[in-house]
Specification:
heterodimer, A: alpha/beta, D-Maltodextrin-Binding Protein, domain 2, 2 domains, B: mainly alpha, MetI-like fold, 3 domains, two-stranded antiparallel sheet, two-stranded antiparallel ribbon, 70% helix, elongated
Chain lengths: 270, 543
């Protein structure tokens, strides 16, 4: 009997100890916003236990509604259906715009074409333009590369450039930004689209409608294919809670520096 | 005649079978050797002083005093480079100078207010200072040499004014003299081109040497220069060589052209004060970065910074081991018991046949289906909506269960009937026979199934993707409830590092390193299992 009592006491203490450890913050969602989540977590590592997984925008929304994560990272806004499911469950999703991102059309640096209009890009992806000659380049067939249809980058491109029209059947699909980058780097006639952070000296970003993608053109909304990146929470987080600090971190000077370091466009300007 | 045909067939068979073996070995070599070779570069490389700095700051390794000495020595060498760079960039990037002038002008106002100067005098002095500042700002803004000197002359006219001694305005005048020196050497017509190139040069210097002393960066990846000699080489090349694409012929592809930035004819900084810097960086690079052969065995135990930019794969290895071992704990008893039932107890009726078909089908179900099942069942109902090690290893157990059942079934079936009959003859019951005679005899066969499934469980990504693996999370905490924590894992880490971030493109050695670790880990697990199996069969053979 005595033993039993001590056992109960010890386990109660253990339970309390594990419960009161550091505060936990579970983050799930888009692979695009993932790097920001990772980096913010690095800055938060002394304050609380942060868990980041990257399953995709849709799954992030699902786990927010299911209550298995505190913050959902999304590279697109919640769809009507997702929003409705959330509200039906009594969860009011609140969006925090954490950064901006431009979807840049990239080509091999040897390609003499420097600028395209959205209509031309659309025609390329619809298969109406099949040779670089038709847009003022060398006589070379265009290798068209797109992201997989479940990615947020695809959705942005599909909405803003394709105007929700179907892509041609010869379009080649790859499943990540680094893959698009690698494919264009090694293929002279290729065109693909990636987030601003993936534009470097090995590929060249085209001007779209005469506007070169850059921090300032994207922040001002002049560059035609830009999008906000979101963190979603269930209701506005309790002020002062880890979730609240995390969702407002991008507004601080340090947060802005991190967003820039990760190749995104910050919403603040210090 | 018939014998000859038979021999020909035999020869043909020998040739084809040996060829297939050779092909398999070649494929294995083609795949494994580059993978392991590149992976090894995560562990064996030439680490620079930045690497040792990073290891000290992030993990508290290395001795403080030697490191400080080393940093001081390299910093001295770097200062020469920065001195050249700063001197030149002051002439190009005049925003900084303009900012300083504005600050000095404001300071002047503060000084006057502090001294309680009468109002009239104050206004006059401020007006004078403003005039000087505006001349200076115009000089900074202008790209016409004559105009610049005109403005500078106007500022320096106040040089002999004794009343300005010791005030901030004197500093403004000193700036003008300083700027005159710079202006004499800079070709202002190229200032815009210079400014763009200078940004690129500054970026490469930052990649080589990290932030200047005293500058604090929020992220670890931004706080250190090139930690490895191969990275140093890459950035050194990009620093010295300017890459451009030029149109050779109209309507043709552009061709790449590389020019040294300090090339006397075509280089972008030809004949400027910056030109000597490039040669200096090249000459002193082993002094400024101090590469040293490094055996980074801690790669296998250290934690990493988010995104795997720095650090090792310790938590990933631990997570993978936990997941695999726990999955085996779930799957092996279940699998062996089911196999025993199917062979020893169940008859041959249609229900059993259907069950067998189901098991075979399960073995062929894609792993992502298991992953989704794990999310929908284990995470939702078993572990209280918590993605964790338990739910992930249960999912993995489910994935390998069919393989274990099939292998155990075959192994148990292969035990000679005479063994059982002998045991029964000695009076042992059905269960006793199975537990003491049949099962040990089937042991090596069952272990083969376990080995196969062990490697599969360690390498699978899809089943744990939704059920418990995270890209970034706590290290399993053995004091607390580690089985209810999500974990990092090698397979998911490999996936994450290749799809997520632009970071991964900057640290290919870590990418290959993680793949290599996974291959080595599976190899080690297999070797352990194989050793156990050979011991077991030795014992069975009785010698």
């Amino acid at each position: 009997m005595k033993y039993l009592k001590t056992m109960v006491f010890v386990s109660a203490v253990l339970l309390a100890a594990t419960g009161a450890m550091a505060e936990k913050l579970v983050i799930d969602g888009s692979t695009t916003v993932g790097p920001i989540g990772d980096a913010f977590a690095e800055a938060f590592k002394d304050k609380c236990d942060v868990t980041v997984s990257k399953t995709g925008s849709g799954d992030g929304a699902k786990s927010l509604v299911a209550g298995s994560c505190d913050i959902a990272m999304m590279s697109r806004f919640m769809k009507d259906k997702e929003f409705k499911t959330a509200v039906d469950k009594g969860i009011m999703p609140v969006a925090h715009v954490v950064a901006m991102d431009g979807v840049c059309s990239i080509v091999h640096p040897s390609n003499p074409v420097k600028s395209l209009t959205t209509a031309q890009i659309k025609d390329i992806y619809k298969g109406k333009i099949t040779n670089w000659k038709q847009v003022g380049g060398a006589d070379m067939p265009i290798v068209v590369i797109s992201r997989d249809t479940s990615s947020g980058t695809y959705e942005t491109f599909h909405g803003l450039v394709m105007k929700k029209e179907k892509m041609a059947s010869h379009v080649e699909y790859v499943s990540s930004n680094p893959q698009s980058h690698a494919r264009v780097k090694s293929t002279k006639g290729a065109i693909a689209y990636v987030g601003l952070g993936f534009v470097d000296r090995e590929v060249r970003a085209l001007k779209v409608d005469g506007v070169a993608p850059s921090r300032s053109t994207i922040a001002k909304g002049i560059y035609p294919v830009s999008r906000p990146l979101y963190l979603f929470t269930a209701g506005y987080p309790k002020l002062g809670s880890p979730a609240h600090l995390f969702c407002t971190f991008h507004l601080s000077e340090e947060g802005q520096e991190i967003v820039e370091a990760k190749g995104f466009v910050p919403v603040t300007d210090y | 005649m018939r014998i000859q045909i038979r021999q020909t067939w035999n020869h043909l068979f020998t040739v084809f079978s040996s060829m297939s073996v050779v092909l398999m070995v070649a494929a294995l070599l083609l795949f494994l050797v580059p993978m392991l070779g590149k992976g090894m570069s995560a562990v064996f490389f030439r680490g620079t002083v930045e690497f040792r700095k990073m290891q000290h700051d992030l993990y508290g390794l290395g001795s403080e005093s030697t490191l400080q000495k080393e940093i001081a020595a390299t910093q001295a060498a770097r200062d020469d480079i920065y001195a050249i760079f700063d001197r030149f960039s002051r002439g190009i990037d005049t925003d900084l100078l303009a900012g300083e002038a504005k600050r000095l002008y404001r300071d002047h106002g503060d000084e006057l207010r502090y001294q309680n100067v009468p109002k009239d005098e104050y206004t006059a002095l401020r007006k004078q200072a403003k005039g000087i500042r505006n001349h200076l700002m115009d000089a900074f803004e202008s790209v016409d040499k004559a105009e610049i000197f005109e403005h500078l002359d106007a500022v320096e006219a106040f040089k002999s004014d004794a009343s300005l001694k010791g005030t901030s305005v004197e500093k403004l005048i000193a700036m003008a003299a300083d700027y005159r020196n710079i202006a004499e050497t800079v070709d202002f017509s190229k200032r815009a081109d210079y400014a763009e190139e200078l940004d690129a040069v500054e970026e490469e210097l930052f990649r080589l040497f990290g932030p200047r002393p005293g500058v604090e960066r929020a992220l670890a990846m931004e706080s250190y220069g090139a930690t490895r000699w191969d990275v140093v080489q890459k950035h050194l090349h990009q620093l010295v060589w300017q890459e451009s694409w030029v149109l050779s012929e109209d309507g043709q592809q552009m061709v790449q052209k590389q020019v040294r930035r300090d090339d006397p004819k075509e280089g972008s900084f030809a004949g400027t004060q910056l030109a000597p810097m490039f040669a200096l960086v090249e000459e002193t690079v082993s002094e400024t970065l101090r590469p040293r052969r490094t055996f980074y065995w801690r790669y296998f135990v250290q934690d990493s910074t988010p995104g795997h930019y720095f650090g090792g794969v310790g938590p990933e290895i631990l997570g993978t081991l936990l997941l695999t071992v726990l999955a085996m704990c779930f799957a092996v008893p279940l699998g062996v018991i089911s196999a025993a039932y199917l062979v020893e107890y169940a008859g041959e009726n249609w229900v059993i046949k259907i069950i067998r078909v189901c098991i075979n089908t399960l073995a062929g179900v894609p792993s992502i289906v298991y992953g989704l099942f794990g999310l929908a069942f284990f995470v939702e109902y078993v572990t209280a909506k918590q993605k964790c090690i338990t739910s992930a290893s249960m999912t993995l157990a489910l994935l390998v269960l069919p393989v274990i059942i099939r292998a155990s079934e075959e192994a148990i079936r292969a035990v000679p009937r005479t063994y059982r009959e002998a045991a029964m003859g000695l009076g042992a019951g059905k269960f006793r026979t199975f537990a003491t005679v049949t099962l040990p005899a089937a042991g090596p066969g069952i272990l083969t199934g376990i080995i196969l499934s062990l490697s599969r469980a360690a390498g699978e990504t899809a089943p744990i993707l939704f059920a418990g693996a995270v890209a970034l999370g706590p290290i399993p905490d053995f004091a607390g409830k580690w089985w209810f924590q999500p974990t990092r894992a090698l397979s998911y880490g490999c996936h994450d590092i290749t799809v997520g971030d632009k970071l991964a493109m900057m640290v290919p050695h870590n990418q290959y390193g993680m793949v290599m670790t996974l291959i080595l880990l599976v190899l080690c697990l297999n070797i352990v299992a194989i050793v156990i199996r050979s011991r077991m069969s030795k014992k069975l053979r009785g010698y």
